[in-house]
Write a structure and sequence with these properties.
- There is one protein chain.
- The two termini are 19 Å apart.
- The protein contains 5 helices and 6 strands; from the N terminus they run βααβααββαββ.
- A hairpin with a 5-residue loop joins strand 5 and strand 6.
- Helix 4 runs antiparallel to helix 5.
- Helices cover 35% and strands 26% of the residues.
- With 164 residues, the protein is of the alpha+beta class.
Length: 164
């Protein structure tokens, strides 16, 4: 799991910035390079449109950290996409926070929601259209876990090997 105290680059995007992405000042600033930091944190509103924006933020951060291995990048993008989508679709959160950190030979990915289930969880199965996301995440990461927060929120985390 990721540390609870963050001192890295923290970005908060409003619903308007999400809807107008990438035609925002934040997007233009980040396109010139992610702030130098081994840690990244981005808080976004729970809009479906926020998921591709988070993928773009993760790509920009991985570029800044020289994470070039395509298998690592694909795994990280899949994990951040699935965990963010689950938080958007299955919680009553107003905002979601995604975090990325390089820690030695590991890439740590974390998504924190504000809790409250908004729909019944889907049971995964080959015949079901939905419900297999966390299974796919588990196959893409070397470790996966969840932690209940004292404020009622929940944090999902995954650890991905940087060494392949």
């Amino acid at each position: 799991m990721l540390p609870t105290a963050w001192s890295g680059a923290q970005i908060a995007l409003s619903p308007q910035e999400i809807e107008q992405w990438p035609k925002t000042a934040s997007a233009r600033t980040l396109a010139d390079g992610w702030p130098s930091s081994r840690l990244a944190s981005f808080r976004v509103p729970t809009l479906k449109r926020a998921v591709p924006v988070c993928r773009q933020l993760a790509r920009l951060w991985m570029d800044s950290e020289d994470i070039t291995d395509e298998s690592v990048r694909c795994a990280a993008l899949l994990v951040i996409s699935e965990l963010m989508t689950n938080a958007v679709v299955h919680t009553n959160s107003v905002s979601i926070t995604g975090r990325l950190q390089k820690d030695g030979d590991w890439l740590l990915v974390e998504v924190q929601d504000e809790g409250g289930t908004s729909s019944d969880p889907h049971r995964g199965g080959n015949a079901n259209e939905y419900g297999r996301g966390l299974v796919v995440v588990a196959q893409s990461a070397q470790a996966l876990g969840t932690q209940l927060e004292t404020d009622g929120g929940r944090t999902f985390w995954a650890r991905i090997s940087l060494t392949g």
